[in-house]
Amino acid sequence: MASSHGNSTHSESAKTEQIITEFFAKSLHIILECRSPFMSSRNFSGEQALSSPSSSSSSSSSVRPRDKWFNLALGECPAALENLDLWRQSNFEPVVVDVILVKRGLSRTQSLKESGNAYSSDHEEVFSGSEEKIIERWIVQYDTRKPREKGSTSRRTSSNVLHTLYKKSILLLRSLYATVRLLPAYKIFRDLNCSGKLRPFTLTHRLLSFVEPFTRKEESEMQRFSFTPVDTSSGRLCLSVLYHSSVSDASSESSTPMSPQFIPDYVGSPLADPLKRFTSLPVSSPSSLPFSRRHSWSYDRYRASPPAYFSPSPTHSEPPAANALRFGPVNLPPQHPDSSSVHKTNYSYDEYYPSPNFTPSPSPSPPVYMHGNHLSNAALLRTESAPVCIPKLNLHPSLPMNDNSRPSRGSKLDTSTDLIRFALALIWDCFSCLCVVVKDDSKKHYGTKISTVNSSQFSISRSSSRSFLDDFDDSDFPCHFDVEDDDPMYHGSRPESFDKRSHIGDQMDPQAGGTFPIKKSQDAAVGALVHMLKKAPPLRQELSTSTVDSTHVSSIRAEHPPDTSSSVLVASKTTADALEELQGFKLMKDCLLSQGGGTCNVAAGIWK
Amino acid sequence: MNCEVCQLKELEVEHFEIREVLRCILHTIVFHRALGLVRPKVIDLELFDITYVQCGDGELEKKIDEKIEQFISWVEKHPNKKSQVCISFYEVKNKHPSWFTNKTERLYWEQWYINLNVSQQQKVHSGKSHPSKIVVDPGGNSLEERSARRAALETSLREVLFQIIKFVNEKKDHVPPISDGVVYFPYEVTIPRWILSLIHEI
């Protein structure tokens, strides 16, 4: 009898011990699973038999899957608890969980330290320069100081005792499960765990077997919530929490979205205003576009179009002249000595052509530009919607003829068409770089001319060109497109010549002058264009060089006076020159648009 | 065995908030009384920054939602009244069958009273109610007031949840023993109309 009673008692104590041990594990599991963000955990619902260090290994209780203890299936066990059993010496030691709010510092290092009495989770991160604050302290302990209730065990069977203990433990853990999600720290955890945003803070924790007392001030800032202890035959299970009631301040700080977000209309994207984008992208070699966003499609531009079609359609409010003149890069590339005379006459444009790598011709300047500024800028302005592929170019591009036939920007152009359009717009902008200061009158002229073009196609590029122009309005580098009012010759001639351009598509007047080469191979045109594009500098970065280049070009141009008048090509371009160039570009565009092969006579020259 | 009664703090809710508030409170109570094996399911309220726990049982969810809908229907018929939802836990005692009755007896061991004061300030109202019944507080529709009211309700709801937790912690002895294989203690959700009538008379 006594032995059986003794066995029963022993069994009861063993089971009690087991319940207590599992209570520790389960409570810590509940706490850490919503206080330890990004924890790695394994499914701990396995069949690991509990082996409390202080209990007999031959526990008579049935082996339960650990997750089912207290009828609360939590699933994965936090990694921090995987070695809890090894760490804890006995159930008589409390387990203190400090939940620490760490405000990020400069760098973070992970530390795994294990001292005699303290076990730091491997998730503990020390942030250099960071600020740590304990926002919660959970204390789970088995208090054996409570005197055993006298006579209670005698009146109650051990099974009842155990059953009651287990039931009350269940109730306590249920309330713990709910409480842990009602405290302020849960919001921070949820924020960190669920949100993809980068936060300036994080949560960490540490497990201790002793209580580091708070300072009086710290404790005064915290509130306590104590769960009703669960009595056992030899003590009672106690669980309490000290928490800061106002930790949401940390979570309300601004955060940087860390989750990758697809920005559909980032600067430079095809989805954004393509022409506007081109404004900032000098049409030059890919490597020489410091501020450009290199896209895979951007290279298509170089195949896309001759300068004539680079010009994005001037947009709405923009003076078309400005846009026309802002065609191409600011700084002119060095002269190519083997340029034809026609090239040389309007070297400014020659230089803007892409490097010859796109063309077999050594001459960088395509015929389109040979009449340089005299080309119809309107043609250039409409490049936004003009898909041009340089390989096809031969100056008989697939560019849709302007105006009405050309699909509007909002039309259903395919990708290649869009790319070509972008390229054209880009080139247009690059050429626009040449003209930093454009007089209003010249702009007006261009405005008149441009108006004949499908305005819808100008809209985007116009604004972009304008913005680009604005950047250079006060530039301090000479631009050979600069309009000089004091040049009477061209003031008088330009409007006249401009007026001759009744509409885009006019064949370039051969009489316009030998400013530009009459004939040019298609490849040479393309190559020149590409060369020009490559040489085109970025908006401001190459301003310093633009001065030299423009001067150089100016001087070169001066050396190769046009047939009609050497005075046409002067160091600084006038409005008339710009108009002529516009006309030239228009013609170039027309040639490109035409489906026929062969060369295109693009004697832009100066139309008088 | 005595019947423990817990009167929860009264909450002033708007019509559209009833569902969430009742779900939160009822599931929290049931979760603390479902002592069988459960896989808890954490739910974040939409209207409030509160997270509560369900038992993860679809059937239970459905039953509670049905009760909530019944309550909402009742509220619509009796607007602007203080209302209650009562959830009671009982044990089934087989009464000795007699020629009077062979019913089983329900021995209630716990009752929770959820006190709600449903205001009708919302613009959108169920079609069943009379439009004239909608009281539009002149200042109640301002954004600030609504957000202040919402914040106050959230605080009160959190207090109610803590009230439940404390009650569950403090009173454990009256809870019947757990039966193997049984997850939930038998319960019922009622709307004590008689209280409403009493209040109406006041």
Automatic annotation (TrEMBL), chain A:
UniProt lists compositionally biased (Low complexity) regions at: 51-62, 544-555
Compositional bias of kind Polar residues: 337-346
Q: Does the keyword Ribonucleoprotein apply?
A: no
Gene Ontology terms describing biological process: mitophagy; piecemeal microautophagy of the nucleus; protein localization to phagophore assembly site
Stored Gene3D superfamilies? HORMA domain
Q: Which UniProt keywords apply?
A: Autophagy
Q: Where is the Autophagy-related protein 13 N-terminal domain?
A: 20-246
Region entry Disordered: which residue ranges? 45-64, 310-346, 484-516, 540-567
Q: Where is the composition biased (Basic and acidic residues)?
A: 493-506
Q: What is this protein called?
A: Autophagy-related protein 13 N-terminal domain-containing protein
Automatic annotation (TrEMBL), chain B:
GO CC annotation = Atg1/ULK1 kinase complex; phagophore assembly site
Q: Which residues cross the membrane?
A: none
* Gene Ontology biological process: autophagosome assembly
UniProt keyword list: Autophagy
- Which InterPro entries does the UniProt entry name for this protein? ATG101
* GO MF annotations, alphabetized: protein kinase binding
What family is it from?
Belongs to the ATG101 family.
Q: Which PANTHER family match?
A: AUTOPHAGY-RELATED PROTEIN 101 (PTHR13292:SF0)
Q: What is this protein called?
A: Autophagy-related protein 101
What organism is the protein native to?
Linum tenue
Classification from the root reads: Eukaryota, Viridiplantae, Streptophyta, Embryophyta, Tracheophyta
